[in-house]
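# nightly structure sweep
# worker-07 picked up a monomer target from the shared queue
# config: single-sequence mode, recycle default, output format = structure tokens
# input follows
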Amino acid sequence: MKTWAVVALGIPVYLLAIVLFRRAFTLLVRHGRWWLAAALGAFHLPPLAAFLGRWLGGTLPPDMLVAPGGSLRLFLTHAGAGAMIAAAQYIAHAVPLFILEYVSVRFFPSRAVQFRRFSAALFLALALAGGVFVAFRLYEDAVRIESVPAAVSRGDAPPLRVAVLSDLHFDEYNPAARVNSYIDSINATRPDLVLFAGDVASSRRGMTFVQDATACLARLRARLGVFAVLGDHDLWAGGRLDSVATCLERVGIEVLDNEKTLLHIDGNPVLLVGVTNIEPAPVSEAVLDTLIPPKRNQLTIVLVHRCSRRVLSRCERVGVDFVAAGHTHGGQVGCCVVGSTVSVASFGEGPVSGVCRTGETTVFVCNGLGYSVFPLRYLARPTFGVIDISRADGRP
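# output follows
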């Protein structure tokens, strides 16, 4: 989604939150002349507190601080986009509360004043509690990297540990220090095989960041090698996919562009299929039929950037054992609605984040590390996957 579309969606939500806050404030506080200052504080201070926490806590990478405009844009993003996030989170819970108040007043008109003042107090308490939660999650989702474990079992599978990463989006907001920390976390799990699901660097500046990003990826260690597919931003950055593919292969990462390779692990065959499925050029049914054959006596792993319904349907139909994907960023920015997280990615084609199972196929969608549109994550913590594959009978 483009920046203008986010702003066009965010501004009405922000204004509605201001209106609801004003109503609650003026109902509860006599005269309520300071309602605007209170509303601005409720929506702008929490994300700014998250930014200040990163600054004082030393979790802003040094590369970001010296990048031209890096820290300033991050500050302005927290002040602007962060406030829209806080407003949306407020709206998600304030609107149901407003409806409940309306219904209560209709059925019990004699207690209308009490209902309205009580709901106004809840509205303001919601703004306070929601602000604390927003500040905490904006901070946590910026500085914490989470490993997601999963297990896959198959009768004749060799014991295998697979690490999955995606969506580095290397740029001034996601610089070498942060990417190297991500790589170190992955190497610490001692994987046998590493799969990268695409989007090496931010495409805003073409190939500017690709060389630095691939230098970081070159530090990945796995006894069976590192394999990759390419994503949307890899196409946009280089103008064509082979520009980024050349950089990756130069540092020893094998790129599978609608290709497959047969690995032999302790005498057992493992079929690894790399599918190029990106928004500007979705993969066709004919290519999928050629790449992903009906299930045979071998462990089959599919690596794809965007796990669309077409890809998932083919994998489920032929009984692929494991699918690794990225692209969604876990939604990047979600909204907590009655215990569930909803984001723009929730209305897309395939799974959004984490591990799921469809038929005999286990799917892992990696949140990745980087950003798109603006450098914030909310309810979509950076992740990588650690998938342990073993025999179904438990034997080594």
